[in-house]
UniProtKB/TrEMBL annotation:
UniProt-recorded name of the protein: Chromosomal replication initiator protein DnaA
Notes on the domains: Domain I is involved in oligomerization and binding regulators, domain II is flexibile and of varying length in different bacteria, domain III forms the AAA+ region, while domain IV binds dsDNA.
Gene name per UniProt: dnaA
Subcellular location field: Cytoplasm
One Gene Ontology term, aspect cellular component: cytoplasm
């Protein structure tokens, strides 16, 4: 019976859709005109109901007549593919059919049989999904030969040129484990998080390249969350959401970079959630990065966040001195350039924010050296760094300090300069003077002048008071530290 149904269905939908959505279905039982089919996931069920209910009804009608009914048996998503599948039976949710369905002969199918669980499913499936089968902006999804699928990987990122250090040891070794056995370790999903320029993209690209090199049959896809979002929006616009989903369900290893970008984009998140579930259940590897730990990903749905906990979360820290040295040396070797050891040391010592910045300084040195036909030396390095440091200092002037401190204490800049002696204002004023002393070249007299014409002894007293408070008051100390970050980059 199912084979005949399939024949009916096949004649009315595309080859790719048929393969994706109907080949994985297993017919499991037929009794009293009820055909039970097993589908691999909840998402699968929702998708069928959303998009292929008409085709299914037509097939069932032809085979079993108006009394025919269809039930789904879903391999329940346990969050662990090793678990033995449990199945539930859900009658087809008639509600899912297009309005015209009521007048078709097959409408009697499952009429009125909307159970509570099916209703929940129906509600959940009321995704942002438009009727499909229109134009397709995703050429790749029509390509059945998987060799034509593009991974979007940059092969200059590898494990070989990813320097290991304390800052990245866990993330790197988890990445290597995943790269060697995608989808089969417990690191699924693997979530790498860390600040800007610390090597997230490099690491996940290295994972992708490694997998691709040893598993040519696997479709590895790297995509930034931003691109994913734009593609999805485009597919909505073009009425081709189904093609979008079809394409992503072909992926064997999905690498989604900068997942924080999905914050607040509910519909895109929902689509990603479905794709995630589907791939995860099928034992496909998922790798993600984020610029902050999952608990700080505001604007991401809880159900999505909870998925991230299924696997492993590993962070990247700022590299320590030795790692920075090694990164510079590695870069030099790669680019075939020579920099005296004391310059390497000077750079590694001075640029401690992130790897991207370190590379930036290196590149500008190389450029200068070739432009001026001069070997890179310490003097040149100092010159290059002075440029960067001045950039920071130029921003941190008195106005900036006053504005930042006032904002931090939720008062106005005018109040900072006013005569008032209210305690909160006095504290804010003293802190602002303290930072003015620390971060500008203004004399005590000049600082006093800019804070409502106070004299230099007031400034001395303020700086002293703040120093004392930093020593004695833990909460105050952390406030000052928080503020200092804004002045030191
Ligand atoms: P993120 O994605 O975290 O912002 P990237 O992966 O783009 O950072 O890294 C920034 C630059 O630093 C890249 O050129 C990358 O190759 C380099 N980089 C980062 N970490 C390392 C490392 N451990 N070893 C070598 N290069 C690194
Ligand atoms: Mg990145």
């Amino acid at each position: 019976v199912w084979a005949n149904c399939l024949r009916v269905i096949r004649s009315s939908i595309g080859e790719q859709s048929f393969r994706t959505w109907f080949e994985p279905i297993v017919p499991v039982a037929l009794h009293d005109n009820v055909l039970v089919i097993q589908v691999p996931s909840q998402f699968f069920y929702e998708w069928l109901e959303e998009h292929y209910v008409e085709e299914l009804k037509r097939g069932i009608y032809q085979e079993l007549g108006p009394e025919g009914r269809l039930e789904y048996s879903i391999v329940v998503d346990q969050g662990n593919s090793q678990n033995k599948p449990r199945t539930v039976n859900i009658p087809t949710a008639r509600k899912m059919a297009a309005p015209s369905a009521a007048s078709t002969p097959a409408a009697s199918l499952a009429a009125g049989a909307l159970t509570a669980s099916a209703r929940n499913v129906a509600a959940a499936a009321a995704a942002p999904v438009a009727p499909a089968q229109l134009r397709n902006p995703f050429e790749a999804s029509k390509v059945i030969d998987r060799n034509y699928l593009q991974s979007q990987l940059n092969n200059s990122y590898s494990f070989e040129n990813y320097i290991e250090g304390d800052c990245n040891r866990l993330a790197r070794s988890a990445g290597l484990a995943v790269a060697n056995k995608p989808g089969t370790t417990s690191f699924n999903p693997l979530m790498i998080y860390g600040g800007v320029g610390l090597g997230k993209t490099h690491l996940v690209q290295a994972i992708g390249n490694h997998i691709k090199a040893s598993n040519t049959d696997k479709f590895v896809l790297y995509v930034s969350a931003e691109k994913f979002t734009n593609q999805f929006i485009e597919s909505l616009r073009a009425n081709a959401v189904q093609d979008f989903a079809n394409f992503y369900l072909l992926v064997d290893i999905l690498i989604l970079d900068d997942v924080q970008f999905l914050s607040g984009k509910d519909k895109t998140q929902e689509m990603f959630f479905h794709i995630f579930n589907h791939l995860h259940q099928a034992g496909k590897q998922i790798v993600m990065t984020s610029d902050r730990p999952p608990r700080d990903l505001v604007g991401l749905e809880d159900r999505l966040l909870s998925r991230f906990k299924w696997g492993l979360t590993a962070d990247l820290q700022s590299p320590d001195f030795e790692t920075r040295m090694a990164i510079i040396q590695n870069k030099m070797q790669q680019d075939g350039i020579d920099i005296p050891p004391q310059v390497v040391e000077y750079l590694a010592y001075s640029v401690d924010t992130n790897v991207r910045e370190l590379e930036g300084v290196l590149i500008s040195l190389i450029a200068q050296s070739s432009l001026n036909r001069r070997e890179i030396d310490l003097e040149m390095a100092k010159q290059a760094l002075r440029h960067i440091i001045e950039d920071v200092e130029a921003e941190v002037n008195l106005d900036f300090i006053q504005k930042t401190v006032a904002e931090f204490f939720s008062i106005s800049v005018d109040l900072l300069k006013a005569k008032t002696r209210k305690k909160e204002v006095v504290t804010a004023r003293q802190v602002a003077m303290y930072f003015a002393k620390e971060h500008t070249n203004h004399s005590l007299k000049s600082i006093g002048y800019h804070f409502g014409g106070r004299d230099h002894s007031t400034v001395i007293h303020s700086v002293q008071t703040v120093s004392d408070l930093i020593d004695s008051d833990k909460q105050f100390r952390s406030q000052v530290q928080e503020l200092r970050k804004k002045f030191t980059k």
